[in-house]
Design brief:
By secondary structure, the chain is an alpha+beta fold. It contains six helices and twelve strands. It has helices at 24-37, 75-89, 108-117, 124-131, 149-162, 183-190; strands at 7-14, 41-50, 64-72, 97-102, 138-142, 167-168, 179-182, 194-196, 208-211, 218-220, 223-231, 234-237. It starts with 6 loop residues before the first strand and ends in an 11-residue tail after the last strand. The relative contact order is 0.18.
Length: 248
């Protein structure tokens, strides 16, 4: 793929799995791998966005959608590939939805929809009404079952657009537990932009980091950010809490 005729997009899927299938995040990574193999584009990192937990909403282990940034040189073919992949690979009992968004001008209405989906029960009609405000930029589609996954797919795009929501998919593990290095070296080796504490302080490049346990990064200010604490002269990445596997 060349850079001369590409456009930046977001891809989000939701409601694709069951307790016996692969998770939604892994499925999105597989779609991106198929996209790259077909020469249709290249993908960035995947974020998980937590939506409302309610007994009025069907979900597997917890109600979340998965979103990634990408660049494509053939959006129509990408839409076709992603939709077909979902239909062929989603769990039979799932209700998958796909949202592809063309980046560019601000889309605060989508971010507002995402925030609403974290606090209230929404419907497919709500999702399609929000998407209709961005003709030619939002491509929202159902790919099985009730298709209710379009709600979370659109919400995930909206939350990703805020630049301040979501966990980065994948754990960050120390190569050698207890290893010590500068923050600059840590960020280079583990592919994060910065370490930050709860007071908003950022580790300076020459400050020391002690990496003891596996951790998770988050999206903050559109940067891959690692929550950390300062203790005994070191920045220490905050250990990842144990949780169920990512689900719908």
């Amino acid at each position: 793929m060349t850079d001369t005729a590409t456009e930046k997009i977001l891809i989000c899927i939701d409601d694709t799995d069951d307790l016996d299938s692969i998770g939604t995040g892994e499925l999105l990574e597989n779609i991106c791998a198929a996209m790259e193999k077909a020469g249709l584009g290249r993908a960035g990192f995947v974020t998980r966005h937590q939506l409302l937990i309610s007994d009025r909403i069907a979900y597997t282990s917890h109600n979340s959608s998965m979103c990634c940034s990408a660049e494509t040189n053939d959006l129509p073919s990408l839409l076709k590939l992603a939709g077909a992949y979902l239909e062929a690979n989603c769990a039979p009992s799932s209700d998958p939805g796909l949202c592809v968004f063309r980046c560019g001008e601000a889309a605060e209405g989508l971010s507002e929809f995402g925030r609403r989906a974290q606090n209230e029960v929404l419907t497919k009609d709500d999702a399609y009404a929000a998407a209709a405000c961005y003709p030619g930029r939002v491509f929202l589609s159902e790919h099985g079952g009730s298709g209710d996954g379009v709600i979370g797919a659109l919400a995930g795009v909206g939350l990703r657009l805020t630049g301040n929501d979501g966990r980065i998919k994948g754990k960050i593990r120390p190569e050698n537990p207890g290893e010590i290095m500068t923050a600059a070296e840590f960020c280079r080796r583990y592919h994060v932009a910065r370490l930050i504490n709860d007071d908003g302080e950022t580790a300076a490049p020459d400050e020391l980091v002690r990496f003891d346990e596996q951790t998770k990064a988050v999206l903050l200010d559109d940067l891959i950010t690692l929550p950390a604490d300062r203790k005994d002269g070191f920045w220490i990445p905050r250990p990842k809490k144990k949780s169920p596997k990512d689900g719908k």
